[in-house]
Design brief:
Blueprint: H1 2-33, H2 38-41, H3 59-66, H4 70-101, H5 105-117, H6 126-135, H7 145-164, H8 169-177, H9 182-193, H10 195-211, H11 214-219, H12 228-233, H13 244-278
Length: 280
């Protein structure tokens, strides 16, 4: 029995390793092409390793940073990601705390509405969303976080509420006996205990907001504001020609930060997802 289990584990390890390599392969090819000259990328050498004849060094990265408004788009993406994730973490954790502690039909209805929002396709609301954003002046990088808060609340509330059910109520009651009001109880007692789920939700939402292309394209004015994914889509040179070298470099500059963040917090993601989905 142990031998059979060992064989099964070896087979699964091999299959998952092959699957992982297939997922990593496109990123590796983008990195190699970001180091090549333009002519090599658009020919049969696109799938070859960089050689001295076609090696461009860091020229593509310098070109990507210095042109096409990369730094401005990077600033917009950072602003949108930070404000959206901060709003989601604070508002959704407080909402989940209310839902789990206040037992009423209203709180239960709110919880089911949040869960239901996770299964609603974005395509069903994107046209009305664009009109609503324009009417409410939410079409700038400075206040688009309100829209992201609405779309990210479903998963966040679901995970926070699942973890909140495992938090002992006696701890909160003790703090209130000591004179804490509800806000003090939440920020001083409850919020620190939510750290695993806070990190998990924060990383997952940051990955979504950072890489999102469709929502900013629908809401923002493309002529004035471009996030990093939008910049890559509209990466054009003179006469509308696509500059493949700088585009590949721009993609790598976009992917690397969020991959580092994910790898650094993947243990917290696993713990937070398990706590939010299983406990309670």
């Amino acid at each position: 029995m142990a031998k059979r289990k060992k064989i099964d584990n070896t087979i699964w390890t091999g299959l998952l390793t092959i699957l992982a390599l297939l997922y990593v392969y496109p990123v590796v090819m983008i990195f190699f092409n970001s180091l090549k000259q333009e002519t090599a990328i658009t020919t049969d050498s696109a799938f070859a390793l960089p050689t001295p004849e076609i090696f461009a060094g860091l020229a593509n990265y310098v070109n990507a940073i210095e042109s096409k408004g990369f730094l401005q788009s990077l600033g917009y993406s950072l602003l949108i990601t930070i404000t959206s994730v901060a709003a989601i973490l604070i508002c959704c954790s407080m909402c989940a705390w209310f839902i789990t502690r206040v037992k009423s039909k209203i709180s239960q209805a709110l919880y089911f509405l949040f869960v239901f929002s996770m299964v609603v396709p974005f395509q069903m609301v994107m046209f009305t969303l664009s009109q609503t954003a324009d009417a409410l002046k939410l079409n700038t990088p400075y206040n688009i976080w309100v829209i992201y808060l609405g779309f990210g609340a479903g998963l966040a509330v679901f995970m926070f509420a699942g973890f909140m059910k495992s938090v002992p109520l006696e701890v909160e009651e003790a703090s209130m006996i000591d004179g804490c009001n509800p806000l003090q109880t939440f920020f001083r007692i409850v919020l620190p205990m939510l750290k695993p789920t806070l990190v998990s939700v924060g990383i997952l939402e940051a990955m979504w907001v950072w890489n999102d292309y469709l929502l900013p394209t629908l809401v923002l004015d493309i002529k004035k504001y471009k996030t990093i994914p939008m910049l890559i889509q509209y990466f054009r040179g003179s006469y509308g020609r696509v500059e493949m070298g700088p585009m590949m470099a721009c993609i790598m500059l976009t992917v690397i930060p969020i991959v580092i963040v994910y790898l650094a917090g993947q243990k917290h993601i696993i713990k937070g997802v398990a706590a939010g989905a299983v406990k309670g």
